[in-house]
Every structure is written in structure tokens, then in C-alpha cells.
Input
Amino acid sequence: MESRVNLELAATFSAFKLMAFLKSGILGVSLSPRQADFMATLPALLDNAISQDDIRGTMLGLQPDMVQFNRIVNSLPHFIDLHLSIQFTTPKFIDDRMLARGLYYAGITNTAEIDSNETNAPAIAKLQRMYNLPIDSVLNKPTHHILVSLLQYRYYQACLNLNRLRNLDNNDENFLFVNIPEYKLHVIESKQEKEVFNVIVGKTETPTPIFSSNLETVITNPHWTVPKSIVNEMLPKIRRDSAYLQKNGYVVIDGREQVVDMSSIDWSLSDPLGTRYFLRQMNSSSNALGLVKFIFPNEYNVYIHDTPSRGLFRNTTRTYSHGCIRLENPDKLAQYLTDRYIDDESWNIKKLISSKESKTINLKQKLGVHIQYITCSGNDGYGMEFYKDIYNLDRDEMATVFPNQPEI
Output
């Protein structure tokens, strides 16, 4: 009898752990308030699942219902099949198309497809060169071992990103999702992806922070109050050219929002503005914030905004900002949002921009903004897409979340 009780207690505890993982990801040493609140509901949840004879459905229903999560979940089994097929097939018998997909997922090539008149030899040689193997362009045993290890790393990477999405406190049906390493902003409405925009994110030395907030305000033709850290970067230009600030539309203001004579500032000082003055760039098409700004409260002073440097969106790698998110086609997003989240008025964003006057529009409904770091995704063809780990966060985080993963 005692052994049966112990077995039931162990099974119940295991069920609680699984339910907590499916809901919130791998738990740390200390629980967040959200995790603690959820843990308190587990006995009732499990009891209801048993009484309804739907333990499986109850547990799977705890997982995030997000486009980003579901795409990875739907594509991961196909990736695992490919990984295992390559791992347990003798190298010389691996099909060329299968090998091409494996090399693509391993980050060796830029395409998962191979034409009938092409071979994988150049990609194999590249892999051998990257890992200091003898180069013979043949998938020999050492090269095969490295490829399998890289695919194993990708598997852990996908699991890590699922864990990040589980950690995200998001039950909203409508929200904005900025994926930093993808350089994309996704507009989610009724849990479906409606629009996707290109973005520019922070440089490696000034990375875009990971956090969530709620969008409150859209501003057309915004001015820019320059952060002190960026003022310090500008000082050499200001000292070399006394007209630099005026030519670029800057003014100095005091705490009462009054314009101060710039010639009264001693720019040779290490901190010429101190705490009394601020540097502001007035609204214009060349303003660093561009023509539209999206504000959501956060401790990092980060927001989404337009940029006059629109040519940068043509680049594949887009890490250029000081942490803010620069958005391509911000007028389109602004119109989309004001059409849906302003109850009592209608706004023509293009007309507001053309007026050259600054206009603040407050959203009447809550809209979540999630700025996240997800280094993979699934696509409609059940393939996986992996993005460059631009801030080098994955490996250290994987070592914490999955301490027993093999080294490559």
C-alpha cells in the first residue's frame, strides 16, 4: 500500500513538473510571480483533466498559442527526421538532396535545394575548411561527424527558442512581435500574422534589449531628445565644426523646454550639457527618428521609429542602431494601428506627415509589444530557418538550460 501511494505521489509530482514546463518553460531556482501563481493552480488543473479523461489535451493546451511557437513546433519533427536520417545513414549512401538540406541547416550553404547538375562538393569542402579537416570535398567519417554535431546543435537551438517563447508572458490575441535576429516586426491580429516589416536593431556594442511592454502612442513628425551617451559620441564633430548642430537641426533646451543660445555652452568640457540642458533635434525628414515614432513604456528608453537612412534596409545584416528599432514603412504600420486601435477618430497618417507638424495619437486599446530574441523559425513547407546569433546569446544560454549537450 505504501509503495502504491509513493508511486502515485511520484506520478503526480512528475505531472506537475511537465505541466509547469509546457506552460512556462524550464524553471529556474526561483519562480517568477507568474510562475508561482500558475503552480498554485496545478492540483485543480490536473484533477479536472483526470475527471474529464483528457490529460493529454489539458497538458498540450498549456503551451503558448502563438504563431512563432507553432511554426517551430510544426517544423521540428521534420527537422528531427532529417537529422536522424543523416546521423544513421552511412555517409556514402546519403542522398544528395538530403545532404544539401543538412548542409543548409548546419549553416554551411544559403539554400536547402540543389539542382540535378550540381554537387555538394563545394559545400563539403567549405565545412572541412571551417573545422580544419583535410579538404577532399567528400563526406568522409570525420566530416560526417561534424555535420551531425552541427545538426544536433541546431536541434538544441530550436528547443532553446521554444523555451524562450514559453517564458514569454503573452496571452494576447493582438500584439507586435519584434524578432531581433530575424530583423523583422510581425503584426499579430486574432493570433494570426497580418503584416511583416523589416527592422534595423542595435549594434553588438549597443544591443536592442529583450523585454515586453504595451504600445501607447504614435507620434508623427517627432523631435528627438538626444540621449547623453549619444551626445558624448557627437562631441568630436561639434568641436570640429561650430555650425554642425545648426546645420543638422539641433537646438539646446533647458528643463523648462526653452531654447538656449548654443554659443553659451562650453563644448570643450567633458560634459558640456550637465544636468541643466538637453540636446534636441527638431522634427524634419532628416531627423534621426524619421517621420513616425511608436512609444511604449520601458526602462531602456527604447522605441520603434522611422529612419532617414532607408538604404540600410537593403542589407541582409541590419545591426546599426544604439538599441532602438528602426522600422521600414512606418507610415503603413501607423495607419494599420490607428485604423484599429483608435475608437473615436480616424487619421490619415500620410496627411499628418505631409503637414510637417508633430501630432501625438494615443491608442485607446492595449496592444502588447514583445521584443524578443528567437534564432529560428519554421516555414509553411515544414522547413526550419535559423538566424545568425548576432549577440552570441544562444551558446551560453543553452549551456544553462541544457547542461549535458555535447560540445562541437
The CA atoms of residues 123 and 307 lie 38 Å apart. The radius of gyration is 26 Å. The first helix runs from residue 2 to 24.
